[in-house]
Write the structure tokens for this entry.
Amino acid sequence: NAGVTQTPKFQVLKTGQSMTLQCAQDMNHEYMSWYRQDPGMGLRLIHYSVGAGITDQGEVPNGYNVSRSTTEDFPLRLLSAAPSQTSVYFCASGITGNIQYFGAGTRLSVL
Amino acid sequence: QQQVKQSPQSLIVQKGGISIINCAYENTAFDYFPWYQQFPGKGPALLIAIRPDVSEKKEGRFTISFNKSAKQFSLHIMDSQPGDSATYFCAARSINAGNMLTFGGGTRLMVKP
């Protein structure tokens, strides 16, 4: 099993560009989520999904969009990248919300 | 405003010593408290977790102590080893937020040989 796979591993964007961070899991988990990790801030929840077709906002959703058309995939879209979105992004999945298996992360820089 | 406050931000311990990381929370809707371990370049991984009806849980060298009245919980790493050097995050689950986790700010632990 691959677990939780995130692509790309690294990305550099210019301010105003859009892009999609990909996340796929092969564990048939209902719960999926996106976090951003910033120094001293821990991991902050951006969006989450409790099943295909269902998404909800987390603590810091502004500037990000998600969709969940299948159980396996949960892409995160940056609509118009800003320097404040420079961060490390982690996707996670779980059978329930409290046990989360994390991907290896995407390191994003917005210039 | 972080709902889960973690301290210290960094910690240096000698090999064989005890590492102690503390977390405090205010939200009484939290009902599950896991700890995650993260090595550089990797995603966090679940280490150990506790529910508020238990005051202590031990798994090998790792122990969580939980004080419900004080709304505090801590991770103790006994006989700390250089391989334990990592960033540790406490977290709490809220039944009012889709059962999702809120994380503390993290503690970078270095165990000196």
Remarks:
- Chain B touches chain A through 25 residues (CB under 8 Å).
- The CA atoms of residues 35 and 48 of chain B lie 5 Å apart.
- The two ends of chain B are 37 Å apart (CA to CA).
